[in-house]
Design a protein that fits this description.
The complex is a heterodimer of chains A (537) and B (366). Chain A is α+β, with helices and mostly antiparallel strands and 537 residues long. Chain A folds into three domains: 124 residues, no CATH class; 240 residues, no CATH class; 122 residues, Mago nashi protein (2-Layer Sandwich), CATH 3.30.1560.10. Chain A is built from 19 helices and ten strands. In chain A, helix 5 packs across helix 12. The longest helix of chain A has 38 residues. Chain B has a single domain, classed as ABC transporter involved in vitamin B12 uptake, BtuC. In chain B, strands 1-2 form a two-stranded antiparallel sheet. A two-stranded antiparallel ribbon of chain B has the order 3-6. In chain B, strands 4-5 form a two-stranded antiparallel sheet. In chain B, helix 3 packs across helix 15 and helix 15 packs antiparallel against helix 16. The two termini of chain B are 27 Å apart. Classes of the chains: A alpha+beta (537), B mainly alpha (366). The interface between A and B is large, with 76 and 64 residues.
Chain lengths: 537, 366
């Protein structure tokens, strides 16, 4: 039996990483379903697809690029540019279908230019696509600094139509499990990509280039044309991903999809494609993307783990998959060497068998490690759901206090009463909610809802503070790009400054946010000036 | 004109590694001269120098540091994508050592009230810096082990830490952005001793790196490992150890950069600190003329390359381009630099200079 399996494994070695990924996905999902009741809902499974069209589509383009041995860092930039440009054009009243075609054309053009740089000027793919990413992302902000919302009817229909799953939904009441049109799009793209990669001349050339560019050239394959086409294809996929993203979120902004390309690359690697090129399957990319989504889902169902664990787990998974891959590659080289040896000396096959066993051991070990990590996540989630609210007491810091809404009217009334800075700190480990007002005459009043605190500084200090805040670009456009991502354990800030006839409110939350660095300097400057409530606990 | 001197020197200048980075820097400064004449004004306040040029040097110090470390790694034929994440880890470690209250460590009440005091730190400064640098060097060693001993492609091996690193940095501070109140630490990034204090650190690291690579055999070993690691293995060089050292040093540089960056903004910001700096650093090295394939390298050229990047950014700010839109200009500068380095363009330049200087000199361009 074991021998049978080992021959099967040995004969289908090239499918190993892929099948390991698929098996891991299903095992992890099953474990999650065993321990967390919520995950048994089929909709959770469909949501993995529903939330991933942009990931999958751009990952497919990336797979082709990586198969040729290149890399495309520009996907995130092109995705962001597509969302902004299409939102801006729709706002200007263009026809949505024309906009989509235009975006696809733009993505292909950008891809083709980068491909030409890489192919004909012999620029490193890394550098050329990096320039492309910066260029595309920068262009977004020439178009618009703010997020532009999309109100187009067709985009809405595309994004919000529910396709009910037969058997799992009630067609009359339109209730039950569903997918969106975008899911169909992503699956169609996947099917087409599989066809292109494995059943066309172009696909075979891509694999040949990844295997050995020099010999592909010597074989008379159109290497240059194929390489340019591959980057064009990736640009096309990125633009399509951008369109699906703007349909999904119904808005466009230059800061969407930050760090997207790395998630994508990690997904492709987890799908069994080797970064050195020439080895991998487009189908595997699907499972790479699904596993990334699954990790997030498990962490959500767990509820206790913070979002950054996603990064750590994805990193660890990448390590394991790469470990398996490089092991297989080393094995292949050794095998080739031993074959040579065999033909010369008619040796026994024992070294190969030992090698195979080692490889299997490591493969199983690596797989087990991943499953254990995912199982821990799943079990944690289960415990959390069964224990309910009691779980929060198990970790001292996870005392999640709900972020209260900002006391905006109160702050506004303070400003009307002559304050020039209204500053609210909210949340933190002690669940504070403090509102400070700084007046031009140097009086600082703090109010935490029950107590008041006062401090007097000189008017010159206040003027210096204001000059510093302005010098930090408070009234510039950059300060608008702040986020609201409530994290429960951290501070959120709401800071209104009125100075020399200008007034501006910026909100941000500590941790998990993307406020510009200057914002935090302003916050820390103000924190250095205001009085502090002594801890009551 | 220069033609009176033998053309040999002109050729020597144009073929030098430093020529193109300096040319690019000069072009950008020329651009500033035309569009913003006030750009070159330098003021003295309390004996310290201020001005746009000083700003370029000060804001560029992180990229310069990363560029120095990255040069070593790229010279061995590798690349380190994780430097930005290592910066974030370093900043988190440093901040948590100075202000552990935020993660739930209960200080005695008499110490609690000092936490906003600019003269208070939980651990002494030398410990903070030492531990931070050790941690970041360990990060570098981890990369080095994966690349040199586990034989994983450098881009993938360091991608792991790049993705996981920011998670780890948030794990250290429990997801909280820690403010740094301790003034002596902030001085590292904010202080001035005639010139910005961070510049002296850059100079120190540069001198150390230069001594290590040019006064010992390590530099030659690095280059040989980058040109052909197999043949350097056969000629008795422990190329694995050399690679490990290069990555460890790169981690060390990232740690120093992390300290400077966090001291400058007085917070440990695991999400944004050093974001995209790895790309800047790699670009600095490429502008400096070190090939991504490895081999010959020049530390000084990388530092100038970093200044080219920072000068571009600063001058775009100076003429009023919005912060995020500067990326597009940066992309164009990259394209421009790529074109400068492309063989076709170089051939063209060679042909032009060769024709004007030596009508028959065509064979020299090897």
């Amino acid at each position: 039996m074991i021998q049978k399996i080992s021959t099967l494994v040995a004969n289908n070695r090239r499918f190993l990483p892929l099948s390991a990924t698929i098996a891991m996905f299903f095992i992890a999902y099953a474990l999650g379903a065993v321990f967390a009741d919520g995950m048994r809902d089929p909709q959770v499974f469909f949501n993995l697809f529903r939330t991933s069209p942009f990931y999958l589509i751009s990952a497919i383009g990336m797979t082709f690029v990586i198969l040729t041995g290149g890399i495309d860092l520009s996907v995130s930039g092109v995705v962001a540019l597509t969302t902004v440009a299409s939102a801006a054009l729709l706002r200007a009243g263009w026809d949505p279908w024309v906009v989509m075609l235009l975006m696809l054309g733009m993505g292909m053009a950008l891809g083709a230019i980068m491909g030409a740089f890489i192919t004909y000027l012999k620029v490193q793919p890394f550098i050329a696509t990096l320039a492309g990413m910066w260029f595309a992302r920068g262009l977004c902000f020439f178009i618009s600094d703010d997020a532009i919302s999309i109100n187009d009817r067709i985009f809405r229909i595309l994004g919000q139509t529910k396709i009910l799953i037969p058997g799992l939904a009630d067609p009359v009441t339109k209730q039950g499990d569903y997918i969106s049109i975008l899911v169909i799009v992503e699956l169609v793209v996947l099917a087409v990509a599989i066809y292109i990669a494995h059943y066309t001349r172009f696909g075979r050339t891509v694999y040949a280039i990844g295997g050995n560019e020099q010999s592909a050239r010597l074989m008379g394959l159109p290497v240059n044309r194929t390489k340019v086409l591959v980057y064009t294809l990736s640009g096309f996929c990125s633009a399509l991903a951008g369109i699906t993203l703007s349909i999904y979120v119904l808005s466009g902004h230059g800061l969407y999809a930050r760090g997207f390309e790395l998630t994508i690359i990690a997904s492709v690697v987890m799908g069994g494609t080797m970064l050195s090129g020439g080895v991998g399957y487009v189908f595997g990319t699907l499972f790479g993307v699904l596993i990334t989504g699954l990790i997030q889902t498990l962490i959500q169902f767990n509820g206790q783990l913070s979002s950054w664990w996603t990064n750590i787990v994805v990193g660890a998974l990448t390590l394991v998959f790469i470990g398996v891959q490089s092991l297989l590659a080393a094995q292949k080289i050794r095998q080739l060497a031993s074959k040579k040896f065999q033909s010369q000396a008619k040796e026994r096959v024992t070294p190969r068998q030992v090698g195979a066993r080692n490889r299997q051991m490591l493969l199983v070990g690596g797989g087990a490690l991943v499953v254990i990590v995912l199982a821990v996540l799943a079990i944690g989630g289960a415990q959390n759901t069964t224990r309910g609210s009691g779980a929060s007491s198990s970790t001292p810091i996870a005392a999640t206090c709900q972020l209260k809404p900002f006391r905006e009217e109160h702050a506004a009334s303070l400003l009307k009463a002559g304050a020039i800075i209204a500053y609210e700190r909210n949340g933190g480990s002690n669940c504070i909610d403090e509102l400070y007002a700084i007046y031009p005459d140097g009086r600082i009043v703090g109010d935490d809802g029950t107590r008041k605190i006062e401090k007097q500084v000189t008017p010159a200090d206040v003027e210096k503070l204001l000059a510093d805040i302005t010098g930090r670009g408070w009234f510039t456009e950059e300060m608008y790009t702040t986020w609201h991502v409530p994290c429960g354990q951290c501070f959120s800030y709401d800071l209104t400054v009125s100075y020399k006839g200008q007034a501006k409110t910026v909100k941000a939350v500590d941790g998990g946010t993307d406020a510009p660095a200057n914002y935090w300097q302003v916050v820390s400057t103000i924190n250095g000036v205001i009085p502090h409530f002594t801890s009551t606990q | 004109m220069r033609q009176s001197q033998p053309t040999f020197t002109w050729r020597k200048i144009t073929e030098s590694k430093l020529f193109f980075p300096f040319l690019a820097l000069a072009l950008i400064l020329l651009f500033d001269l035309i569009f913003d004449p006030g750009f070159f004004r330098i003021e003295t306040k309390e004996g310290n120098l201020y001005g746009s040029l000083v700003d370029i040097l000060r804001n560029g110090s992180c990229i310069m540091l990363l560029g120095i470390g990255m040069t070593m790694v790229i010279a061995t034929g590798g690349v380190d994508l994780s430097v930005g994440a290592v910066m974030a880890i370093a900043a988190s470690v440093a901040a948590i050592m100075m202000n552990p209250v935020i993660i739930g460590v209960k200080l005695p009440p008499d110490l609690m009230k000092f936490i906003y005091d600019p003269n208070f730190t939980y651990a002494p400064l030398w410990q903070v810096i030492l531990v931070t640098l050790i941690v970041s060097t360990i990060c570098g060693v981890w990369n080095g082990l994966l690349v040199a001993y586990a034989k994983i492609q450098p881009m993938v091996a360091t991608l792991i830490l790049m993705i996981a690193g920011r998670g780890i940095a948030q794990l250290i501070t429990n997801g909280v952005r820690i403010q740094i109140f301790y003034e002596p630490y902030a001085f590292i990034g904010n202080g001035w001793v005639i010139l910005p204090f961070s510049l002296y650190i850059v100079a120190l690291v540069l001198v150390i790196a230069w001594l290590l690579t040019r006064k010992t055999a390590i530099g030659m070993f690095i280059e040989s490992a980058g040109i052909n690691s197999r043949s350097s293995f056969y000629s008795g060089i422990d190329e694995q150890k050399i690679k490990l050292i290069a990555y460890a040093f790169c981690g060390f540089c990232a740690g120093v950069a992390g300290i400077i960056a966090s001291a400058n903004i007085k917070t440990s910001d695991a999400n944004n600190l050093g974001l995209n700096y790895e790309l800047d650093a790699i670009l600095a090295v490429v502008i400096g003329g070190t090939l991504m394939a490895g081999g010959r390298f020049s530390l000084l050229a990388s530092v100038v390359g970093a200044l080219v990047i920072q000068a571009t950014t600063t001058s775009m700010y100076a003429i009023g381009v919005p912060a995020n839109a500067v990326l597009a200009i940066k992309g164009l500068v990259v394209v421009f630099v790529i074109l400068l380095y492309a063989e076709q363009v170089r051939d063209l330049v060679r042909r032009i200079t060769g024709q004007t200087a030596r009508p028959s000199g065509k064979g020299a361009g090897s």
